[in-house]
């Protein structure tokens, strides 16, 4: 196998569902399968979750006897620099939508350190240290390998808190970075960088609703636009998945995108 081929990522696996409810059912099945494989192999399941509409798309995990919550280690792909009980907090959204309804040990969930909200450099450094604790020492693990990273995608093609044209798109050393000018409010956030996202074993986008109808074909079929979501290309053998609904995929040429599940 040529070197180029060796590093070429697998083609994305895309499934489009008739409704958000049907998408949520299949997404839960996918998460349960990923956690089983990870736990069977390593005795734990490392997952990173995005904010926005994603937390409510995980309702298929409530209740779900197949989920071994005590084996989960949960991080946030990005987080707003607000208190943990603030309505803008992704931790607050995930706790309300999911973690308050399932038996996951509190110590298995890794929110940002709310005592550092006034110093974004410290805040992102401290979150990176949380990752280093979970994924061995930085010198041995160049980048953490999450078992699963769940991403959303904005109508502008952003993902995590990585926005079109932003300098953070070029960050290739730090695991966690910060920004103060997020075009999507609130402005102050921390976020995983592309190396972390692209080293995951599995990355799954969840994109639903008509507001994604124009950006989805651009992200799937026009990599030359360089949209942030199109820069998510997991390093081999990582696999990229798309869970979309028919409203979002109406303009996608599904015959072109090789997909299976
Ligand atoms: O903290 C955030 O704002 C999210 O992580 C963000 O990246 C989200 O995933 C996209 O904006 C899509 O949001 P929707 O799924 O709500 O459209």
Automatic annotation (TrEMBL):
<comment type="function">
    <text>Hydrolysis of 6-phosphogluconolactone to 6-phosphogluconate.</text>
</comment>
<comment type="pathway">
    <text>Carbohydrate degradation; pentose phosphate pathway; D-ribulose 5-phosphate from D-glucose 6-phosphate (oxidative stage): step 2/3.</text>
</comment>
<dbReference type="InterPro" id="IPR037171">
    <property type="entry name" value="NagB/RpiA_transferase-like"/>
</dbReference>
<dbReference type="GO" id="GO:0017057">
    <property type="term" value="F:6-phosphogluconolactonase activity"/>
</dbReference>
<dbReference type="GO" id="GO:0005975">
    <property type="term" value="P:carbohydrate metabolic process"/>
</dbReference>
<dbReference type="InterPro" id="IPR005900">
    <property type="entry name" value="6-phosphogluconolactonase_DevB"/>
</dbReference>
<keyword id="KW-0378">Hydrolase</keyword>
<feature type="domain" description="Glucosamine/galactosamine-6-phosphate isomerase">
    <location>
        <begin position="19"/>
        <end position="242"/>
    </location>
</feature>
<dbReference type="Pfam" id="PF01182">
    <property type="entry name" value="Glucosamine_iso"/>
</dbReference>
<dbReference type="GO" id="GO:0006098">
    <property type="term" value="P:pentose-phosphate shunt"/>
</dbReference>
<dbReference type="InterPro" id="IPR006148">
    <property type="entry name" value="Glc/Gal-6P_isomerase"/>
</dbReference>
<comment type="similarity">
    <text>Belongs to the glucosamine/galactosamine-6-phosphate isomerase family. 6-phosphogluconolactonase subfamily.</text>
</comment>
<dbReference type="InterPro" id="IPR039104">
    <property type="entry name" value="6PGL"/>
</dbReference>
<protein>
    <recommendedName>
        <fullName>6-phosphogluconolactonase</fullName>
        <ecNumber>3.1.1.31</ecNumber>
    </recommendedName>
</protein>
